[in-house]
Amino acid sequence: MQENYKKLLTYAYNIVGSYEDARDLVQDVLEKYIALDKTSIRHESNFLIKSTINHAINFKTRQSKKEVFGEWLPEPVSFENADTRLIKDETASYTMLVLFEHLNPKERATFILKEGFNYSHAEIAELLEISTENSRQLLSRANKQLKGGKFLPQKQHSSIHTETLGKYQAALAQGNIRELEHLLVSDIKLNADGGTKVQVVKGTEMGKTATATLLVYVQQQFLLDKEFTFQFFNHQPAICFWENNKLHNCHILQLDNDGLIQEIYSVVDPEKLKNITKLSRM
């Protein structure tokens, strides 16, 4: 049941984008399963997977996103955290979880099952109770929306991540806008999630100079002299800013093959940050 739990949690998290909600969904599925008459259930694992996936799809369909400051971003997870009970190689990258928000729940589930778990269209059809042709159509629509994005990021040497994070932190601390510009691609995108409590700028593509200027302003106004740690969330490098063991902000980066920053996901939402605070610092 322990291995089943990790797999079910991984399915649910990929679909809903929230570790806390995924945990609640899986718990609900397991509690209902315990109370069931199991005489007609031939394969426990398949039954639980199907129940979890459909429960997660229904949850995502019903879920009305809160009005938040900035843009709603998924809850990041760290595989270095012993409390994170996800299967690392079957958990989507952070960038992909953000892109999943442009899909409807069934498109999202179909893409995850096909690209993340290598299910056939026949298996997806059985799980989602649709036709194989419908499964193919859902995957095609998802791929068009995701523009060729991959479930897991292309593997990069950890030295690239460390080097870019070091230069990024140094440029922020020094307020060096020009050095920051050298670390960013020309069409850099900045996305920020302040939840319902913290006002942030809505995510947009502003260009290198405007993005670097905004980052330095935020650093000097809100993050100056705060302790920082380098982390990895959902396979991507990140820098976290702390004060008195309280996490104030987390920047998750998407890098290109040259180590330049393509996207910055700034998580400021206190509800999301409280779970990250449990991390063992690297």
Strand-residue proportion: 15-25%
Number of helices: 11
What does the overall shape look like? globular
Provide the CATH topology of the largest domain: Butyryl-CoA Dehydrogenase, subunit A, domain 3
What distance separates the N and C termini? 31 Å
Number of strands: 7
What's the name of the CATH homologous superfamily of the largest domain? PhyR, sigma-like (SL) domain
Share of helix among residues? 40-55%
Instruction: Give the low-pLDDT segments.
Output: none
* Major sheet attributes: 7 strands, mixed
Describe the 3D structure.
The protein has helices at 2-16, 19-34, 44-62, 94-100, 105-116, 121-128, 132-146, 158-174, 177-183, 208-223, 270-276, and strands at 69-70, 184-195, 204-205, 227-233, 236-243, 246-255, 261-267. The protein is of the alpha+beta class. The chain is globular, with a radius of gyration of 20 Å. The model has no long low-confidence stretch (mean pLDDT 91).
Concise overview:
Helices cover 49% and strands 17% of the residues. The protein is an alpha+beta fold and 282 residues long.
Topology:
Blueprint lengths: L1 H15 L2 H16 L9 H19 L6 E2 L23 H7 L4 H12 L4 H8 L3 H15 L11 H17 L2 H7 E12 L8 E2 L2 H16 L3 E7 L2 E8 L2 E10 L5 E7 L2 H7 L6
Parallel strand pairs: 2-7
Antiparallel strand pairs: 1-2, 2-3, 4-5, 5-6, 6-7
Helix pairs in contact: 1-2, 1-3, 1-5, 2-3, 5-7, 6-7, 8-9, 9-10
